[in-house]
Design a protein that fits this description.
The complex is a heterotrimer of chains A (684), B (330) and C (261). Chain A is mainly alpha-helical and 684 residues long. Chain A folds into three domains: 233 residues, Fumarate Reductase Cytochrome B subunit (Up-down Bundle), CATH 1.20.950; 121 residues, Fumarate Reductase Iron-sulfur Protein, Chain B, domain 2 (Orthogonal Bundle); 280 residues, no CATH class. Helices cover 51% and strands 4% of the residues of chain A. In chain B, helix 3 packs across helix 4 and helix 5 packs parallel to helix 8. In chain B, helix 7 links the parallel strand 16 and strand 17. The longest helix of chain B has 17 residues. By secondary structure, chain B is α/β, with parallel strands linked by helices. Chain B folds into two domains: 182 residues, 3-Layer(aba) Sandwich (Rossmann fold), CATH 3.40.50; 121 residues, Rossmann fold (3-Layer(aba) Sandwich), CATH 3.40.50.1220. Chain B has a seven-stranded parallel sheet. A five-stranded parallel sheet of chain B has the order 15-14-16-17-18. With 261 residues, chain C is of the alpha/beta class. Chain C has one domain: Rossmann fold, CATH 3.40.50. Chain C has eight helices and 13 strands. Classes of the chains: A mainly alpha (684), B alpha/beta (330), C alpha/beta (261). Chains A and B meet through helix 26 of A and helix 6 and helix 7 of B.
């Protein structure tokens, strides 16, 4: 029983299907060609991992159903799963339309399926209702509701309604001994039961065609709506990066490149262009963006959409091979996306973590920064001396190279040079970093680490003046050239000394040496001091039984330690295990931790608009009423120290590094060269 | 090559308004000592409109001879013109050395003279003496990383530029002979035209980067009003007011006053840091100051690790007292 | 416009400086960079070039390593028409300011520009007399301490910076210009500029090519001699005292000793 009786009916159906598919295919083809405008990228490695992620994140809707945003996420998951089921039913309708005897196995006339189908229709309708409620009544900040959204919701509703009424009128017109399994349709059929068989059959036909045509219309509409993600999301998830998130793509063979980074749409890798098709403007990326939430002109969503609109707006020119911005009136940077937006990013990675379809916001921003720095020499003025200082002094300040080891001079710390000369071996090389070596506040952290290492009898050494900045700020600001020169220096030194294991107290040094140095021949076992100290405690080499003097503590997860590299627990285990310790968690914690504002080279830049990013995070900390914020990265420590003073809350809140807290808990106090931090520390 | 025919030490004394420039008088005292050691006389060369009237008075400041160039042709002539006159005078009279102030016109005149005369040239002296008949000076190189001692060849006239305040003007008894110079600058010496002089004496007249004295405030100032006392002190010392990032962050002072990592890098003679902790972001902007004074309530403040004089106290009390004391000085 | 900018390579501000046994700067032991004060001079040259067209030559006198600073200047020039010349000769070692002025002036005569730009001083010598010495050799007008520069036709107008204002000066091309450290913010060379700099023309001239007798320059030609050098002690922790009501007096005494009051 299908309303395509006769040749005429079949012909119309076939024409409709062929017509819609043709239009659809044309539009999809155009989209594919647009994606191929991008530059080459190898995203075909790690197949098993890619398939696994496809199942977890697309089929499993994993990122959507995690908090924050759990409720809307569940709504979406239900619509998604619902549609998977429903689509089978739609296919059955099409099949029956072509040949009314066709029954798809386990679908057509299958009782289980029929129940499931109607159930899912109700679920979807409820979900659409909830989604509408959110848009009309709740109106959350991150959700920008454009007409497109209503079109989609409307179309979905139409599809569901037509499906139900198709069922209902079919039941009335033709009856069936299994009709009751379509329980909603069956109930509906009761409501319209008074109709004549003929009327019912006609209405059935109407709703059937309505449904079919709506489906086909939807198919054709799809490529120009934000609902496109239903086609492309699987691909953007599948083609997600296979390299560690904290590793930027190296620019190889710098000497011979014509272009650096991305200054024009067509210079993006193809996956980055594909990403923009999957953006549904859900705004999860924006939700915890430290820049956006502190009033900076950066919205990760708008960056993605800026690229998307550029791509669609200039599609004709791009597809004709003429490139983008041919009239010079629509530059990518400085036009579609403001310079200041790019510089506001701390590269914290929240956006990338949150995006349910695996859009890579941060790499796009960094690609554009590279263009600004390496090709245009266009960057905030305060960065120029940072570059000059890194080049000349190996640190971002005007401080002499040869003073890099001076912080340790009274602490009896051997240098690698001494170790090598004596023919000895070490367990671990402590890569101190610029902050630990030169910054008054962070030298205390380095001293605490030395105290701990000695107490645990770890054989270690530092590079002192042979160490140079790991290069992270340079790389994240976009100066790949400077980064490579710094990295290569360090790698050369480490390799010459045959170093195997590296310890750092800075989340940035940790991430870069672990995930990026291998790109240039520097592969070591890299541990962060949180992990390492936890290891030592587990091995019984450190006894921590003096009561903690820091009151209630809350741990702030540094972006490059937590979100980027997954280290959350060792530090918490240790802190919780300290005598008299009281550890509370902030609302935004672990993967959801909000950036202190210091990453991405931003600690070297002025914040010219809005509120200080660190102030936001300090407020979040203060909401759980701690006495101490425990940090594990010198940038966080510095940002919080400045912020606490700026907010005038020094009397109620202080910042301590994890190593300092632990060192104070050491059972046998060593020769204390390090005065305990009193909480009164001057910081300007 | 110009050979000296006397052991006289000449000093160029420009006019500042109607009076001889203080820097010139300082140099005269130095020249007097040097000349005495070498067996010559201290000769002041004074030029500018109205110079004649000032000539005799220079005896009081140590000049034993005065050469005057009160020539209207020099009006608007600039360093090139003065160098020309001096060159002719030196060629005629053969002094042992000529001392000039190392600021502004001094180096311009010195450079031209040294080449024209085939003379020796020593620049930026911070100390000057005679040793075994030779003129010996000290200068600092590499922003103070090295103190270098140099000597000039004895058989050659030496042009020396001297840093301000290397000598102090002194009073001497005695008379002086005054001679008018009748040399006129050549046309080439007058190629540079001084069109107008613009004085900027209001507000922050002394640019931070060039100030010899900087009085700087940080969080310890407590608020924008407190910066008024810093302004008073800076005014009394002829310096400029700076700030740490904390004060700028708090909105107390504009960003243009910020000294530090993302602000200005300064190298004054004296940097007085009030209520500034001395964290690295600030330190890197002022650590090359010749002398650093820090006033801070917190004895643990990092700035005390590298200040030359650290006062643990309340800057809001100390600074006004200091300003009064400075103003009270003759 | 045909511009020559003089560039000096000096030790990095934070490097340890030593004099070798000959009492000459031990250049091997330190990291070198462009004299900080020459960067605004390079930048001004490039800006004038961008505004008026023409070509620019970066000129330096020094050992072979000075080539690095010339390449950095060329990198800043980016796409502009730029080249570099290094005057390098063993006989130049130990030159005083006048020897340097002689060599640079001879090279400039060969290059025959209509504008020569220098920085106001150098990181290591700090004298500020070089420009005047060269002006005398080349018989050119000299505008020093220029804090802004504009060129209209043949006339160059500058603001000569004073401690409390400025003098507006004018003169006609050709002339020598010495610019302050505050005249502009030097551009950061793009990577393309850095890579392109390697391909730009860089010549090395010896004394012979400049027709200068060796005994007029170097240690031989110097009329002043270095007797010795000492490094003053590093910035140590000074005196830290508590205010007992006498702070103002203590500070005043401190200032007086340093001749600030």
């Amino acid at each position: 029983m299908a309303p395509t009786n006769g040749v005429f009916g079949h012909l119309i159906l076939i024409l409709a299907i062929v017509g819609a598919l043709t239009l659809f295919a044309q539009r999809v083809r155009r989209l594919v060609r647009l994606v191929r405008v991008g530059t080459a990228e190898d995203r075909f490695d790690d197949m098993p991992g890619r398939v696994r992620d496809l199942l977890l994140y697309v089929l499993g809707q994993r990122r959507l159903i995690k908090s924050p945003n759990r409720v809307p996420g569940i709504i979406h998951a239900l619509i998604f799963w619902g549609f998977l089921i429903i689509t089978l039913g739609t296919l059955q309708l099409f099949a029956a339309g072509l040949d009314h005897a066709v029954l798809i196995p386990a679908v057509g006339n299958d009782p289980v399926y029929m129940v499931l189908l109607d159930l899912m229709i109700i679920v979807v309708l409820a979900a659409v209702g909830a989604a509408s409620y959110r848009r009309i009544v709740v109106k959350p900040y991150r959700l920008t509701t454009k007409p497109d959204a209503w079109i989609i919701l409307g179309l979905i509703t139409v599809l569901m309604i037509t499906l139900l009424f198709t069922e209902a009128f079919a039941i009335v017109a033709y009856g069936s001994n299994i009709a009751h399994w379509s329980f909603i349709g069956y109930a509906l059929s009761g409501l319209v039961g008074g109709l004549s068989l003929n009327a019912a059959a006609n209405l059935y036909g109407v709703f059937w065609w309505a449904h079919i045509l709506t489906v086909l219309g939807f198919l054709v509409y799809l490529p120009s709506s934000k609902h496109l993600h239903i086609l492309t999301a699987a691909f953007t998830v599948f083609f997600r990066p296979s390299t560690p998130r904290g590793a930027m793509t190296p620019i190889r063979d710098l000497e011979n490149q014509e272009h650096f980074g991305v200054g024009k749409l067509e210079q993006f890798g193809w996956k980055h262009l594909l990403d923009t098709f999957s953006c549904t403007e859900c705004g999860r990326c924006d939700r915890n963006c430290p820049a956006l939430l502190s009033g900076k002109p950066l919205s990760p969503k708008e960056v993605v959409l800026g690229i998307k609109y550029g791509l669609f707006g200039e599609a004709d020119s791009l597809l004709a091979g003429k490139g983008s911005n041919t009239d010079g009136a629509h530059p990518l940077i400085g036009g579609r996306i403001a310079d200041e937006s790019l510089w506001s990013c701390t590269t914290c990675g929240w956006c990338v973590e949150a995006c349910p379809v695996f859009i890579e916001h941060v790499p796009k921003i960094l690609d554009m920064r590279r263009n600004l720095v390496l090709e245009e020499s266009r960057f905030p003025a305060e960065i120029q001396p940072v570059f000059a200082n890194l080049e000349k002094n190996g640190n971002p300040w005007q401080l002499p190279k040869k003073q890099r080891g001076a912080w340790a001079k009274d602490l009896d710390v051997p240098t690698m040079a001494e170790i090598a000369a004596a023919g000895e071996r070490i367990d671990v090389l402590y890569f101190v970093g610029c902050m630990g070596s030169y910054d008054q506040r962070n030298k205390k952290v380095a001293a605490a680490i030395v105290k701990l290492l000695k107490a645990a009898n770890v054989k270690f050494a530092i590079l002192a003046k042979e160490e140079t900045c790991n290069g992270d700020p340079a790389r994240r600001i976009g100066n790949e050239y400077l980064f490579q020169s710094l990295a290569e220096q360090n790698i050369q030194t480490l390799n010459d000394y045959g170093v195997k294991k590296v310890l750092t107290a800075c989340a940035h040094c940790f991430n870069t040496i672990k995930n990026e140095y291998p790109q240039f021949g520097g592969t070591y076992e890299v541990v962060h001091h949180t992990e390492f100290i936890a290891e030592l405690v587990a091995q019984g080499r450190l006894t921590l039984d003096r009561p903690v003097g820091d009151g209630t503590m809350t741990f702030h997860d540094p972006c490059y330690l937590g979100r980027y590299n997954g280290v959350f627990e060792p530090q918490r285990d240790i802190l919780r295990g300290l005598p008299m310790a009281n550890l509370v968690e902030m609302e935004r914690t672990k993967r959801g931790s909000m950036c202190c504002g210091g990453g991405g080279g931003r600690s070297f830049m002025e914040e010219r608009t809005g509120k200080r990013m660190s102030h936001n995070r300090i407020e979040q900390a203060m909401a759980v009423k701690p006495d101490t914020i425990v940090a594990a990265c010198p940038f966080c420590t510095t940002m919080f120290e400045d912020g606490i003073k700026g907010m005038n809350v020094e009397s109620t809140l202080k910042v301590r590094d994890f190593a300092e807290v632990v060192a104070d808990s050491l059972a046998a106090p060593g020769p204390s060269g390090t005065p305990c931090y009193t909480g009164d520390e001057g910081r300007d | 090559m110009q050979k000296p025919t006397t052991s006289d030490i000449w000093v160029l004394v420009p006019l500042e308004g109607e009076a001889p420039a203080r820097a010139g008088l300082d140099l005269l005292a130095g020249a007097r000592d040097l000349a005495a050691q070498l067996g010559g006389q201290a000769v002041a060369v004074i030029y500018g409109s109205g110079a004649g009237a000032q000539a005799a008075a220079l005896a009081r400041w140590g000049a034993q001879q005065v050469l005057v160039c009160d020539d209207s042709a020099l009006a608007g002539a600039g360093a090139d013109g003065v160098a020309d006159i001096l060159g002719q005078a030196i060629e005629a009279k053969g002094p042992r050395a000529l001392l000039l102030d190392a600021a502004l016109d001094g180096p311009d005149i010195a450079g031209r003279l040294a080449v024209r005369l085939g003379a020796g040239l020593l620049a930026n002296a911070t100390a000057l003496a005679a040793r075994d008949g030779a003129v010996v000076m000290q200068e600092t190189a590499f922003d103070g990383a090295l103190v270098v001692t140099c000597a000039a060849d004895q058989d050659v006239t030496t042009i020396i530029t001297v840093r301000a305040r290397t000598f102090e003007a002194r009073e001497y008894p005695g008379e002086v002979t005054v001679e008018a110079l009748s040399f006129a600058p050549s046309a080439q010496a007058l190629r540079v035209r001084n069109v107008e002089t613009v004085r900027q004496t209001t507000g922050e007249a002394v640019p931070l980067e060039a100030a010899q004295v900087i009085v700087s405030g940080g969080r310890g100032m407590g608020g924008p009003e407190a910066f008024g006392i810093l302004k008073d002190l800076a005014g009394a010392l002829g310096g400029a007011v700076g700030a740490s990032r904390a004060a700028v962050d708090a909105g107390w002072v504009p960003y243009a006053m910020q000294v530090g990592q993302t602000g200005k890098q300064v190298k004054p003679k004296v940097y007085i840091a009030c209520g500034i902790s001395g964290a690295i972001q600030h330190k890197v902007g002022m650590q090359n100051s010749a002398a650093i004074i820090a006033i801070n309530k917190d004895p643990e403040a990092p700035i005390f690790d590298f200040a030359d004089l650290g006062i643990v106290g309340d800057c809001l009390e100390i600074v006004p007292k200091l300003t009064a004391a400075v103003r009270a000085r003759p | 416009m045909d511009i020559v900018v003089c560039v000096k390579q000096t030790p990095v501000a934070t490097a340890e400086k030593r004099l070798d046994p000959d009492l000459l700067l031990d250049r091997e032991s330190v990291d070198n960079a462009i004299n900080t004060y020459d960067e605004p001079a390079i930048e001004e040259g490039l800006r004038l070039l961008e505004a008026h067209g023409g070509s620019i030559t970066f000129l330096s006198m020094g050992p072979d390593e000075a080539v690095d600073s010339l390449r950095k200047a060329l990198a800043m020039a980016g796409d502009l028409d730029a080249r570099a010349v290094l005057i390098s000769d063993d006989a130049l070692r130990g030159s005083d300011i006048l020897g340097t002025a002689l060599a640079l002036s001879a090279a400039i005569q060969k290059l025959n520009p209509n504008l020569v730009i220098l920085g106001m001083r150098s990181d290591d010598g700090g004298a500020g007399v070089l420009a005047a010495a060269m002006a005398q050799h080349l018989d050119l007008a000299l505008l020093t301490n220029a804090n802004t520069v504009t060129i209209e036709g043949k006339t160059v107008r500058s603001h000569r910076r004073l401690s409390d204002g400025y003098i507006v000066q004018e003169s006609d091309l050709p002339l020598i210009l010495a610019v302050t450290d505050a005249i502009n913010t030097p551009r950061y060379p793009s990577l393309k500029g850095i890579m392109g700099a390697k391909k730009k023309p860089l010549q090395t001239w010896s004394l012979e090519e400049l027709a200068i007798e060796p005994d007029r320059v170097g240690t031989a030609g110097a009329r002043t001699h270095v007797l010795g050098a000492v490094a003053p002690p590093p910035r140590a922790k000074g005196e830290v005292v508590e205010d007992k009501g006498d702070a103002a007096e203590r500070i005043l005494a401190f200032l007086a000793v340093r001749k600030v009051v």
